[in-house]
Request: fold
Amino acid sequence: MNRQEGRALVEKYAEKDTTIRHLVSVEGVMRALARHFEEDVERWGLAGMFHDLDQDQTHDAIARHGYQSVEWLEAEGYDDSEVLNAILAHGEERYRTDLMSRSIVHADGVSGLLVACALVRPQRAEGMKVSSVKKKLKEKSFAPGVERDKIRGVEESIGVPMDEFIAISITGLQEVAPEIDLA
Ligand SMILES: [Fe+2]
Reply:
Protein backbone atom coordinates (compact mmCIF):
# COMPACT_ATOMS: atom_id res chain seq x y z
CA MET A 1 0.00 0.00 0.00
CA ASN A 2 1.36 3.42 -0.86
CA ARG A 3 0.88 6.66 0.99
CA GLN A 4 -1.94 7.87 -1.24
CA GLU A 5 -3.93 4.67 -0.69
CA GLY A 6 -3.31 4.94 3.05
CA ARG A 7 -4.49 8.52 3.06
CA ALA A 8 -7.70 7.48 1.26
CA LEU A 9 -8.41 5.01 4.08
CA VAL A 10 -7.88 7.78 6.63
CA GLU A 11 -10.49 9.85 4.80
CA LYS A 12 -12.84 6.87 4.72
CA TYR A 13 -12.67 5.94 8.41
CA ALA A 14 -11.61 8.99 10.44
CA GLU A 15 -14.49 11.38 11.09
CA LYS A 16 -12.94 14.38 12.80
CA ASP A 17 -10.40 16.81 11.41
CA THR A 18 -8.53 16.63 14.72
CA THR A 19 -8.22 12.86 14.29
CA ILE A 20 -6.88 13.27 10.74
CA ARG A 21 -4.42 15.88 11.97
CA HIS A 22 -3.25 13.50 14.72
CA LEU A 23 -2.87 10.55 12.34
CA VAL A 24 -0.93 12.53 9.76
CA SER A 25 1.32 14.16 12.36
CA VAL A 26 2.25 10.76 13.85
CA GLU A 27 2.82 9.55 10.30
CA GLY A 28 5.26 12.40 9.72
CA VAL A 29 7.17 11.65 12.92
CA MET A 30 7.31 7.91 12.10
CA ARG A 31 8.67 8.63 8.62
CA ALA A 32 11.42 10.80 10.10
CA LEU A 33 12.26 8.12 12.69
CA ALA A 34 12.39 5.43 9.99
CA ARG A 35 14.87 7.57 8.06
CA HIS A 36 16.93 7.99 11.21
CA PHE A 37 17.05 4.22 11.79
CA GLU A 38 17.43 3.44 8.06
CA GLU A 39 14.20 1.50 8.20
CA ASP A 40 11.31 1.39 5.70
CA VAL A 41 9.93 4.94 5.56
CA GLU A 42 6.69 4.01 3.78
CA ARG A 43 5.74 1.19 6.16
CA TRP A 44 6.63 3.16 9.28
CA GLY A 45 4.60 6.04 7.90
CA LEU A 46 1.57 3.80 7.43
CA ALA A 47 1.88 2.52 11.01
CA GLY A 48 1.70 6.12 12.20
CA MET A 49 -1.15 6.96 9.86
CA PHE A 50 -3.27 4.00 10.93
CA HIS A 51 -2.46 3.77 14.65
CA ASP A 52 -5.62 5.64 15.75
CA LEU A 53 -7.72 4.98 12.64
CA ASP A 54 -10.68 3.88 14.79
CA GLN A 55 -10.37 6.76 17.29
CA ASP A 56 -13.71 8.32 16.39
CA GLN A 57 -15.60 5.02 16.60
CA THR A 58 -14.01 3.42 19.68
CA HIS A 59 -13.71 6.26 22.19
CA ASP A 60 -16.65 4.81 24.13
CA ALA A 61 -15.47 1.23 23.65
CA ILE A 62 -11.83 1.47 24.52
CA ALA A 63 -11.32 -2.32 24.53
CA ARG A 64 -11.99 -2.23 20.75
CA HIS A 65 -9.41 0.50 20.16
CA GLY A 66 -6.69 -0.65 17.80
CA TYR A 67 -8.37 -4.00 17.13
CA GLN A 68 -11.10 -2.27 15.13
CA SER A 69 -8.45 -0.56 12.97
CA VAL A 70 -6.71 -3.88 12.34
CA GLU A 71 -10.03 -5.49 11.35
CA TRP A 72 -10.84 -2.72 8.89
CA LEU A 73 -7.39 -2.82 7.36
CA GLU A 74 -7.48 -6.60 6.96
CA ALA A 75 -10.90 -6.29 5.31
CA GLU A 76 -9.34 -3.74 2.95
CA GLY A 77 -6.79 -6.40 2.01
CA TYR A 78 -3.91 -4.96 3.99
CA ASP A 79 -1.89 -7.65 5.74
CA ASP A 80 1.48 -6.20 6.75
CA SER A 81 1.75 -7.98 10.09
CA GLU A 82 4.48 -5.72 11.50
CA VAL A 83 2.44 -2.60 10.81
CA LEU A 84 -0.72 -4.19 12.22
CA ASN A 85 1.26 -5.20 15.32
CA ALA A 86 2.54 -1.64 15.71
CA ILE A 87 -1.05 -0.36 15.67
CA LEU A 88 -1.90 -2.64 18.62
CA ALA A 89 1.39 -1.72 20.31
CA HIS A 90 0.54 1.95 20.78
CA GLY A 91 -2.10 0.91 23.30
CA GLU A 92 -0.79 -2.33 24.73
CA GLU A 93 2.67 -3.05 25.97
CA ARG A 94 2.68 -6.74 25.05
CA TYR A 95 2.79 -5.85 21.33
CA ARG A 96 5.90 -3.69 21.69
CA THR A 97 8.17 -6.33 20.25
CA ASP A 98 10.32 -4.55 17.68
CA LEU A 99 11.74 -1.13 16.86
CA MET A 100 8.69 0.01 14.88
CA SER A 101 6.23 -1.00 17.58
CA ARG A 102 8.28 0.65 20.32
CA SER A 103 8.85 3.80 18.28
CA ILE A 104 5.17 4.39 17.67
CA VAL A 105 4.54 4.90 21.38
CA HIS A 106 6.98 7.79 21.46
CA ALA A 107 5.89 9.19 18.10
CA ASP A 108 2.34 9.26 19.44
CA GLY A 109 3.35 11.19 22.56
CA VAL A 110 5.67 13.69 20.94
CA SER A 111 3.38 14.50 18.03
CA GLY A 112 0.64 15.54 20.46
CA LEU A 113 3.05 17.95 22.08
CA LEU A 114 4.40 19.27 18.77
CA VAL A 115 0.94 19.89 17.32
CA ALA A 116 -0.05 21.76 20.50
CA CYS A 117 3.14 23.83 20.24
CA ALA A 118 2.54 24.58 16.56
CA LEU A 119 -1.02 25.74 17.22
CA VAL A 120 0.14 28.50 19.58
CA ARG A 121 2.84 29.78 17.20
CA PRO A 122 2.03 32.27 14.42
CA GLN A 123 4.46 30.44 12.10
CA ARG A 124 2.98 27.08 13.18
CA ALA A 125 5.52 24.27 12.66
CA GLU A 126 7.95 26.41 10.71
CA GLY A 127 11.14 27.31 12.59
CA MET A 128 10.14 25.32 15.66
CA LYS A 129 13.04 24.85 18.10
CA VAL A 130 13.95 21.89 20.31
CA SER A 131 14.55 24.23 23.28
CA SER A 132 11.06 25.74 23.17
CA VAL A 133 9.44 22.32 22.79
CA LYS A 134 11.38 21.14 25.86
CA LYS A 135 10.13 24.14 27.80
CA LYS A 136 6.55 23.19 26.93
CA LEU A 137 7.29 19.62 27.94
CA LYS A 138 8.13 20.83 31.45
CA GLU A 139 5.11 23.12 31.65
CA LYS A 140 2.51 20.71 33.03
CA SER A 141 -0.43 23.04 32.41
CA PHE A 142 0.40 23.21 28.68
CA ALA A 143 -1.45 20.54 26.65
CA PRO A 144 -2.16 18.46 29.78
CA GLY A 145 -3.49 15.57 27.66
CA VAL A 146 -0.02 14.86 26.30
CA GLU A 147 1.43 11.74 27.90
CA ARG A 148 4.79 13.16 28.84
CA ASP A 149 6.17 9.84 30.10
CA LYS A 150 6.01 8.55 26.53
CA ILE A 151 8.40 11.31 25.50
CA ARG A 152 10.69 11.10 28.51
CA GLY A 153 11.19 7.35 28.19
CA VAL A 154 12.42 7.52 24.62
CA GLU A 155 16.14 7.05 25.13
CA GLU A 156 15.73 4.01 27.32
CA SER A 157 13.27 2.47 24.89
CA ILE A 158 14.68 3.17 21.40
CA GLY A 159 18.11 4.57 22.20
CA VAL A 160 17.62 8.08 20.85
CA PRO A 161 18.54 10.89 23.28
CA MET A 162 15.59 13.19 23.94
CA ASP A 163 16.97 16.32 22.27
CA GLU A 164 17.75 14.38 19.12
CA PHE A 165 14.38 12.67 19.24
CA ILE A 166 12.58 16.01 19.44
CA ALA A 167 14.68 17.40 16.57
CA ILE A 168 13.88 14.37 14.36
CA SER A 169 10.21 14.65 15.29
CA ILE A 170 10.04 18.37 14.44
CA THR A 171 11.45 17.60 10.97
CA GLY A 172 8.84 14.87 10.57
CA LEU A 173 6.00 17.17 11.54
CA GLN A 174 7.24 19.93 9.24
CA GLU A 175 7.14 17.57 6.26
CA VAL A 176 3.43 16.87 6.68
CA ALA A 177 2.48 20.29 8.09
CA PRO A 178 1.02 21.72 4.85
CA GLU A 179 -1.50 18.87 4.76
CA ILE A 180 -2.83 19.49 8.26
CA ASP A 181 -2.91 23.28 8.34
CA LEU A 182 0.27 23.61 10.38
CA ALA A 183 2.52 25.21 7.80
FE1 LIG B 1 -2.46 8.44 18.92
